[in-house]
Design goal:
Two copies of one chain form a homodimer. In chain A, about 0% of the residues lie in helices and about 60% in strands. Chain A has about 100 residues and is mostly beta strands. In chain A, the strands form two sheets. In chain A, strands 1, 2, 3, 4, 6, 9 and 11 form a seven-stranded antiparallel sheet that branches. In chain A, strands 5-10-7-8 form a four-stranded antiparallel sheet, with no helix packed on it. In chain A, a hairpin with a 4-residue loop joins strand 3 and strand 4. The first copy, chain A, is globular and about 40 Å long. The first copy, chain A, starts with a strand and ends with a strand. Strand 1 of chain A pairs antiparallel with strand 1 of chain B, so a sheet runs across the interface. Chains A, B: InterPro entries: Ppnp, RmlC-like_jellyroll, RmlC_Cupin_sf. Chains A, B: One of its GO terms (cellular component) is cytosol. Chains A, B: Belongs to the nucleoside phosphorylase PpnP family. Chains A, B: This is Pyrimidine/purine nucleoside phosphorylase.
Chain lengths: ~100, ~100
């Protein structure tokens, strides 16, 4: 099941723009204070660093990702999630737009 | 005053990507069913067509815009708004990211 919307949230009006716009997200705060972001990665190959642990949930499109220390690229599509440890990194490559929800912590 | 967030809303998790990613937005629905979007335009010069009338509200950065039929470029910055008639168009040029809220109708 793909998560099509996040309900009853606060959304920040300023976007987060990374890698010259190859990744754009908006920050979201749930009613209980939990923070997430909704974003899109455009065709590119990028490396993201994490502070807090993250779970990336696909809301549309596809990506391939490779966690730090792994040799393997793994495909993630609609409804699928992958976790990234804190203070780590992952490579991601996208051929079509990859839409995601980022869950922290 | 700049609108920093939209509260108690539903946000779509799939982004709207226009002009090869020069404009990325997320659709938002208020509790009363009103639809808006929050987005960002990256450095570029673009022409947007409208269906419904729109009000563009700046949430950060700056743009210059020129309405259809006008010769004049006008600057719009944080907290400022401009209206665009329905079934019309406007040119916009952005040197740094222009963050916006789009109000319809």
């Amino acid at each position: 099941m793909t998560t099509e919307s996040l309900d009853n949230v606060r959304v920040a009006t300023r976007a987060n723009v990374y890698f010259d716009g190859k990744c754009v997200s908006h920050s979201v705060t749930l009613a209980d204070g939990t923070r997430k972001s909704v974003g899109v990665i455009l065709p590119s190959e990028l490396t993201f660093k994490t502070g807090a642990p993250e779970i990336m949930e696909c809301a549309g499109g596809f990506c391939e990702y490779r966690l730090a220390g792994s040799a393997d690229w793994v495909t993630s599509g609609p409804g699928q999630k992958f976790g990234v440890p804190g203070d780590s990194s992952f490579d991601i490559r996208v051929r079509e737009a990859y839409h995601y929800i980022c869950h922290f912590g």
